[in-house]
Amino acid sequence: EDLDKIMQWSETWLLSFNKSKCASVPLVTPRSEVVDPKYHLRGSDLKAEPIKLSNCEKDIGVHIDNHLSFDKHITACANKANRTMGLIRRTFSTLNDKIFPLLFKALVRPALEYAAPVWNPYQRRHIDMLEDVQRRATKVLPGYGDLDYPVRLKKLKLPTLLYRRARGDMIEVFKMLSGKYDPDLPQILKLVELPHLTRGNSKKLKHQFSKLDLRKYFFTLRVAEMWNDL
């Protein structure tokens, strides 16, 4: 029914969809069998065209896979940042602690953080993959190669990428709870309902328990939907 409404809207406003670029991505657990739901786009001519089944699609620069692991997207982010860092090393004959932070924050870090609240990784291998980009980059400075990673970051006044993603998540949560976004968007955060709050504040979140990672981190897809609406 939703697809029929979309097609009706497109015909009313004469904005036709490119049906070849439409795809269906069913969300499943890694051990589940993917079943093609056989969705169709049906126009006023009643000619139905099937939507292709896909395991991963790129939407506004973010690869969303059917397991919500974001493995392809995180790998692409790390590779792009490494290529940019290699270009910087080849372009600048010398780097110091004044120039490097500016270049890294302007050219490399954005590739590692674009839309991070949508795909913020929870697996250690993905977290390390992203952090290794900054870990290797900070070694290119003369005299920094033998220093420990925390020491290099302190001297360059750079936080870890893990910290910045956590900070970004907190900013997004604050915006959602403070009504900074469209109030018509679905409320994806649940507050604790208490008759009287004697401590803390009225913005305490209700922790929702889940066994499967697909459901536990399904919040990321809801944020992705809101990202698209904005």
Your description of this structure?
The chain is mostly helical. Helices cover 46% and strands 8% of the residues. The strands form three sheets. A two-stranded parallel ribbon has the order 1-4. Strands 2-3 form a two-stranded antiparallel ribbon. Strands 5-6 form a two-stranded antiparallel ribbon. β5 (56-59) and β6 (62-65) form a beta hairpin. α2 (71-91) runs antiparallel to α3 and α2 (71-91) runs parallel beside α5. The longest helix has 21 residues, at 71-91. The chain is globular and about 70 Å long. It starts with a helix and ends with a helix.
How do the helices and strands line up, and which of them pair or pack?
Layout: H1 2-12, E1 23-24, E2 40-42, E3 48-50, E4 52-53, E5 56-59, E6 62-65, H2 71-91, H3 99-113, H4 116-119, H5 124-137, H6 149-156, H7 161-177, H8 213-216, H9 219-229
Helix pairs in contact: 2-3, 2-5
Order of helices and strands: HEEEEEEHHHHHHHH
SS element count, helices: 9
State the helical fraction. 40-55%
- The chain-level structural class is mainly alpha
Strand order of the largest sheet: 1-4
Shape: globular
Largest sheet: 2 strands, parallel
How much of the sequence lies in strands comes to: 5-15%
Number of strands: 6
Low-confidence spans: pLDDT under 50, at least 5 residues?
220-230
Mean pLDDT: 84
| Rg of Cα set | 22 Å
Termini gap: 24 Å
Question: What are the main properties of this structure?
Answer:
230 residues, mainly alpha, two-stranded parallel sheet, two-stranded antiparallel sheet, 9 helices, 6 strands, 8% strand, disordered C terminus
